[in-house]
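SAMPLE LOG
Freezer: B-3
Tube label: C17
Construct: single chain, 172 aa
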Amino acid sequence: MRRGRGGSEGAATDRLDPWQVAVKLLAMRAMSTEELRQRLARRGYAGDQIASVIAKLTAARYLDDAEYARTWARSRAHRRSLGPARLARELRARGIAEPEISAVLDEVFGERDVRSVAEAATIRKLRDLQGLAPLVARRRLAAFLTRRGFPAEIILTLCRKHFPHREDLDDQ
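STRUCTURE (predicted):
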């Protein structure tokens, strides 16, 4: 009598080695150390097994939080036009350490000015704001840029530039 894959006898032997699982996960997409640790823990591997696999992956340079953060932040800043506050928040959620976050943000926004990233996001958003009352459009643009993680002074400058109030015109 043959047993199928659902048999309880083969369940212990069918389980993959944590190294194999980790390599497969990293082959699908890059991950931070903390993301990989959580994924392996959810699959039921013990803490010492996870630590061992992570140490081997780090030594083999398959797992590098600094490089992951750099690549991820550069991509998000340029493709999605995200500001430094939003990128820092998302990197923290992925388990990246504060010193690495600071270094990555300095590098990413050293290549491309925060103001130019905010301007690119604004230009794309202006299409959605066409036809709205200027005050409503200005408020929505400000909320959009705030959610994207841009500094208040840049938001204020862009809102004034694209949707000036009468008071803004009097100041000039």
